[in-house]
Amino acid sequence: MTQLSEFHSIQALGEALRTRRVSAAELAADALRAAREYADPNIFLHIDDALTLEQARAADQALAAGSAGPLTGIPVAHKDLFVTRGWRTTAASKMLAGYVSPFDAAVVDRWREAGTVSLGKLSCDEFAMGSGNENSAFGPVRNPWDPERIPGGSSGGSAAAVAAGLVLGATGTDTGGSVRQPAALCGVSGIKPTYGTVSRYGIIAYASSLDQAGPLARSARDLVPLLDAMSGFDPRDSTSLETCDGAANAPGRVQAAFDAAQAGFQAGGERPLSGLRIGVPREFFNEGLSADVGAAVEAALQVFESLGAVRVDVSLPRTRLSIPAYYVIAPAEASSNLSRYDGVRYGHRAAEYTDLFDMTSRSRSEGFGDEVRRRILVGSYVLSHGYYDAYYLQAQRVRRMIADDFRRVLAQDCDVIMGPVTPAVARRIGDNRQDPIADWLGDIYTLGVSLAGLPGMSIPCGFGGESGRMPIGLQLIGRYFDEGRLLALADRYQQATDWHQRIPGHA
Amino acid sequence: MALSEQDISRLARLSGLRLDSNDQTRARQELDRILGLIEELQAVDTTGVEPMAHPLAAHQDIALRLCDDTPDPASTPEQRDACMANAPAAHQGLFLVPTVIE
What we know:
The structure holds two protein chains of two kinds. Chain A is of the alpha/beta class. Helix content of chain A is 39%, strand content 13%. In chain A, strand 9, helix 9 and strand 10 form a beta-alpha-beta unit. In chain A, helix 2 runs antiparallel to helix 3, helix 10 crosses helix 12 and helix 10 crosses helix 13. The mean pLDDT of chain A is 97. In chain B, strand 1 and strand 2 form a beta hairpin. Chain B is flat and about 55 Å long. At the A-B interface, helix 10, helix 11, helix 12 and helix 13 of A face helix 1, helix 2 and helix 3 of B.
């Protein structure tokens, strides 16, 4: 029996599949068994063998017919924020327990068309609100590097599944860091592309002007086909882009940019990144940054320098303001988006009620968890009469100033920005239960990128914590539509280091 | 700025949420803390800065694309039933709710 755990990259597994050394169905059966037997029962919210094996058989047919692509037969799974036909979709909320979508999200469609085989649905923070996956109504997910600790969030199940080797790729969504932060805390690679490049159709909405899908995988090289396949214009999403600075927004764009960047690096020989200016924002190295994370990021920057890059000190003076700006804008949009859960058309309905309003408000109070209720209340407040200008519009003005800061630095001072993803390694499960706002402050290095709509990614760059065994992530932030070049830069780093190859239990 | 009990009741109503007295007390404490955090925005001089509604507005001139307001001709009663299959209470293509008009 072939085991998924024998393969550490999409390329290696893809070759084994295309040369027919492995069948997609055999592999899927093994992967399903591994997923069911995995020590953390909370990681998958729904597995359905028949649905997975049907996709695997389709992959085997494509492989037999010679029409297979780089992702045909590759085992993946989807964050439960993406609606799926067949598999239940809950957004990890009691509100949507048992919900079955009549259609597939655009990203789910695109990955299936590319030949991936889905193992099912992965846990996350309820409605993607959270940074630790503890806000799931169905129990916390454990970090594969230490089961006492969080995997990060909100795409915590996605990052943990990749780190545990249960899948070679997973979908995530990133509204304020929800791909990059769990990728960092679980020691995997993840990218949030430029807003508008990946369709939001079928992603359960949290904060629509910030929500963007992105993949998580073992390495930057694995992210290339995964991101490429999910990108592209979709008329069903009103913010989906038809073009990216003149290039068609379609599969092939990311791959072509990755290949072009690699060709340029190749010309540099021993110093492939010669001339590359890395902007290091001084505000990312503030007093809140823990020493282990700071040291790992510093060592990573030195690797980039050894490859020919130069370091430039830059300033993003409004970094700290990204926290209040985000925690006005995101809750405002959330309170509006989540008004659809009324206990009438779908979702939880209270058992007892008096009139229509009582039914709706009881249903919502029972169906939503603490963090979701908290953000809805904040959103209602900042949008209410008398506060709209002072909070919401003011936050949108600050948002523009933050975006302008990034634009100026990336236009004048540097070609890419690098820094930490998180102030510290993964904390213990339950640690911030008495202080729900504490987690918000930990989002400081990721929120600005989301507010500006820029592409950003996280790659493993070392270990820290008291045990010295908890992963640390390096954040790379590019110009608009720079996904392909970011992935190529990350790949050059991963050619020179082996952090991304470490697996839990063997670090 | 501290919120009053009336403020919390009003917010709960606006939010379509039902908070019991324990919830209210906790919500008040948490919201006071959160408002303290977002209060920092007030000190920023944003004179002359346009609010940014679209996430790519700092990069390019961009507006939301509108779609035609037309029904999907491919829609069938079966599709309607599939969409309504998740309704807590439905009858012959209608969503059931408590009596609104006596």
